């Protein structure tokens, strides 16, 4: 067998994209906080805050829907801020008729 046959095999075909050992949403959160720490002149503080926040976020979203963050942002932020759904009502319209 050639060496090109060895490598990472995902557990399922729907395995989420990963950056190092984090899911992409955790990695974006960590890298944003690390970059803010570097800009503020505190590399160690940014590393600590970014790593701790990404770790806690990973624990918080464990066992939830893969798009949990998008769902939470839809309900917590104004409806047209980043998602413009055509089939769903704005998130602030919570009165049901019927």
Summarize the structure.
The protein has 98 residues and is mainly alpha-helical. The chain has helices at 24-40, 43-60, 68-76, and strands at residues 18-19, 22-23.
Write the layout of secondary structure elements.
Layout: E1 18-19, E2 22-23, H1 24-40, H2 43-60, H3 68-76
Antiparallel strand pairs: 1-2
The total count of helices amounts to 3
Helix share, percent = 40-55%
Low-confidence stretches: none
- H/E element sequence: EEHHH
Tertiary shape: flat
User: Could you tell me how far the N terminus lies from the C terminus, measured between alpha carbons in angstroms?
Assistant: 65 Å
Approximately how much beta-strand content do the residues carry? Answer: under 5%
> What does the radius of gyration come to?
19 Å
Number of strands: 2
Output mean pLDDT. Answer: 76
Return the structural class: mainly alpha
The largest sheet has its strands arranged as: 1-2
InterPro entries: T4SS_TraL
Keywords: Membrane, Transmembrane, Transmembrane helix
Pfam families: TraL
Protein name: Type IV conjugative transfer system protein TraL
Describe the protein:
The protein is mainly α and 98 residues long. The chain has a domain at 16-76. It is 45% helix and 4% strand. The protein contains three helices and two strands, in the order E-E-H-H-H. A hairpin with a 2-residue loop joins strand 1 (18-19) and strand 2. The protein is flat and about 55 Å long. This is Type IV conjugative transfer system protein TraL. The chain crosses the membrane at residues 27-55. InterPro entries: T4SS_TraL (IPR009838).
């Amino acid at each position: 067998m050639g060496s090109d046959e060895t490598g990472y095999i995902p557990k399922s075909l729907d395995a989420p994209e990963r950056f190092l050992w984090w899911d992409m949403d955790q990695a974006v959160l960590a890298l944003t906080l690390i970059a803010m720490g570097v800009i503020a002149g505190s590399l160690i503080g940014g590393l600590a805050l970014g790593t701790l926040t990404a770790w806690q976020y990973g624990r918080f979203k464990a066992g939830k829907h893969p798009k949990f963050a998008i769902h939470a942002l839809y309900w917590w932020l104004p409806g047209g801020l980043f998602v413009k759904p055509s089939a769903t009502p704005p998130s602030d319209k919570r009165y049901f008729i019927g």
